[in-house]
Structure formats: C-alpha cells, structure tokens
Specification:
single chain; about 210 residues; alpha/beta; Rossmann fold; 5-stranded parallel beta sheet; 8 helices; binds thymidine-5'-phosphate
Length: about 210
C-alpha cells in the first residue's frame, strides 16, 4: 500500500480533532492528498455504531462495547482505510487500535489477549505508520470537554479513576512501541503543539514531505 496511516490518540479533551484539522490543512498546502476520518464513526454503519456506543440511553455490557468497537473498525478498515491507502492517500485517523487497548484494556480491565485478537481480526493486521499520542492531564482534558457546552457522552462520564487508567495505558503503549507511537505534550498552546507535530511528521515521513 502506498499511502500512510497516521493516527491521533489520547484521553478525552486532548485536542486531537483541532490538531488533525491543522495538520490536514498543512499537508494539503504541501500538495498532499489527505483523508480525515475517525473511529468510531468513519463509515455509514460506523455512525450508527458510534451513536449506540456513546449515547447515554442504555447500559452497555463491557464485552458488547468491545465487540461494537471491533465491528466499527472492521468496517472502517475494509471500506475506507484499505482503499484510501491503496489510492496513495495520507490518512489522518482520529483513534484506532490503541484506543481499544487503552479504554477497554486498561480502562475496563478486559482481557488483553482477547483485545489483541479482536484488533487483529478487525484490522487484518493493518497497523498505523505513525501514532501521535497527545498527552494531557486527564482533569485538564475533561474540563475542556465540560467547557465546550455539548455535554459529556457515556464514556466521558466515566470516573476519574477510569480515565487515569486509560492515560496509564497510553503511557505504557508509548513506552512499548517507541518507533510507532510518539508522545506530544498536549498542554502546550494549539500552535506549539501543531509545530511539534509537523516536525515529527517531517522526520517520520522523510523524503515524502
Ligand atoms: P471521540 O472520537 O470523540 O474521541 O470519542 C470516541 C470515544 O470512544 C472516546 O471516549 C474513546 C472511546 N473509544 C473506546 O473506548 N474504544 C475504542 O476502540 C475507540 C476507537 C474509542
């Protein structure tokens, strides 16, 4: 596959969405064709799953939650990621397999080998070329979310302890996969974070940018 899969990860309110947008504008200004997508919800089917997963309406069993994220990912990989990579596109993807490890693995405490198996089934082994982990303090991130006036979704409403375990998950993932996952200090200004991300992309995509 000739494109690149660049994933943005982090706890709630870490700033992924605005950084991805800035990154997209920057890459396009360099004449690169970019696709911006997300999990859950990067396909028609995925949008339905996203609603089921994040609305507060009814309780969702932990294994059900895990399977729904896996189903969203399987559809996304087949319908969107693989074809776009084959077409040579740069994909900026808001969350991917590490979210499941951090949230369902570290956050919920579900069996890690089951999660790894499901991630493998859903992706067919497709890994990110680079994952940017935007590291912000959990409480700072949640305060940003509360401040945007939209209201917290089912997962954002989890306990602080849950979100701290998710954060710990990202820290351990970044330590385990230093060449794939790069930590960025998300507490800096929006402009400073974007600067750092662009430098990382220049290094990782050497010769392409
Ligand atoms: P976001 O796209 O607005 O960040 O919201 C997605 C939510 O879904 C967020 O709370 C993280 C959660 N999530 C999981 O728990 N597991 C996953 O595998 C993915 C992709 C997201």
């Amino acid at each position: 596959m000739s494109g690149k899969l660049i994933v943005f990860e982090g706890v709630e309110g870490c700033g992924k969405t605005s950084q991805m947008q800035l990154c997209c504008e920057w890459l396009e200004s360099l004449g690169i064709s970019v696709v911006v997508t997300r999990e859950p919800g990067g396909t028609e089917l995925g949008l339905h799953l996203r609603r089921l997963l994040l609305e507060k309406a009814e309780p969702v069993a932990q294994v059900t939650e895990l399977l729904l994220y896996a189903a969203d990912r399987a559809q996304h990989v087949e319908q969107e990621l693989k074809p776009q990579l084959q077409a040579g596109k740069y994909i900026l993807c808001d969350r991917y397999t590490d979210s499941t490890i951090a949230y369902q693995g570290y956050g919920r405490g579900l069996n890690m080998s089951l999660i790894n198996q499901l991630n493998h089934i859903a992706t067919g082994g497709l890994e990110s070329d680079l994952t940017i982990w935007l590291d912000v303090d959990v409480e700072v991130g949640l305060a940003r979310k509360r401040g945007d006036g939209i209201g917290l979704d089912r997962i954002e409403q989890e306990t602080i302890a849950f979100h701290r375990r998710v954060q710990q998950g990202y820290a351990e993932l970044a330590a385990s996969y230093p060449s794939r996952i790069v930590r960025v200090d998300g507490s800096l200004s929006k402009e400073a974070v974007q600067q750092v991300i662009q430098e990382i992309l220049r290094v990782h995509l050497k010769g392409l940018l």
